Amino acid sequence: MSPFTPDQQERIVEAIRQAEKATSGEIRVHVEPNCPSVDPVQRAIDVFARLGMHQTKAQNGVLFYLAHVDRKFAVLGDKGIDAKVPPGFWESTKDLLRTYFARGDYAEGLSQGIEQAGQQLRRYFPYDGVTDTNELTDDISIE
Questions:
Q1: Domain presence at residue 1
Q2: Residue 98 maps to which CATH number?
């Protein structure tokens, strides 16, 4: 069950589309009520693999994972993007999300986090307009 209204879902998907517009990077959002593992990062790693995010050509996928009932989340970048972003980038992104999530505003938090990740992806993996394709769906993965 999604914690988002249809309008909020569309807003998140639109944030993904905008973030991916000028980059070859790929962003996904996965939402579920409960985190089946103790560590949300480990769960995000499992979901990352299950969604095939490790198969992007430049290894530049970013996953936003949210277990809304358990109030757990993680942000995970593949090897290509993780090697390029400045130190502390993922932690600052999580801090931004945490600010919104603490108020229960998951849609806005995700939208802002996606925008922030998109800025880094554009910087390090600009869209070339010739060989770049949308390798992964922009839809929210919901369990």
A1: no
A2: 3.10.310.50
Query: What is the predicted pLDDT for the residue at 137?
Result: 65
Token output for 13: 């998907």
Q: Are 140 and 7 in contact (CB under 8 A)?
A: no
Tell me the mean pLDDT in the region 112-131. Answer: 87
Query: 0.85 exceeded by the pTM?
Result: yes
Neighbours of 41 (CB within 10 A): 14
Higher local confidence (pLDDT), 2 or 63: 63
Question: How many independent structural domains does the chain possess?
Answer: 1
Q: Which long-range contacts (CB under 8 A, 24 or more apart) does 32-40 make?
A: 32/66, 32/67, 32/68, 32/142, 32/143, 33/1, 33/67, 33/68, 33/69, 33/70, 33/143, 34/67, 34/69, 34/70, 35/67, 35/70, 35/72, 40/65, 40/67, 40/72, 40/73, 40/74
Residue 116: helix, strand or coil by DSSP? helix
State the chain's mean pLDDT as an integer. 90
Q: Does any domain span residue 55?
A: yes
Element (H, E) at 134: none
